[in-house]
Design brief:
The protein is an all-alpha fold. The chain has helices spanning 7-22, 27-42. The protein has a domain at 1-32.
Length: 68
């Protein structure tokens, strides 16, 4: 997750703000809500999208996904 104030953070905030605005939230509140949502997500851990994120098959612990 990008840090607040960074270029990537600003891009994500702008996209989220636009989506909220399109859902009917007024401009004034959409910016505040977008910042709040991104701040809450910053504390969460990432989501494992595939087993590749677990590392090589030979180095995985027994009982983890993908083990035979």
């Amino acid at each position: 997750m990008p840090r607040p104030g960074s270029h990537k953070y600003d891009i994500q905030r702008a996209r989220l703000r636009k989506r909220l605005d399109n859902e009917g939230i007024p401009d004034k509140h959409a910016d505040e809500q977008a910042n709040q949502i991104l701040q809450e997500e910053q504390g969460k851990r990432g989501i494992l999208r595939s087993e590749r994120g677990l590392g090589p098959t030979s180095e995985r612990e027994h009982g983890s996904a993908g083990s035979a």
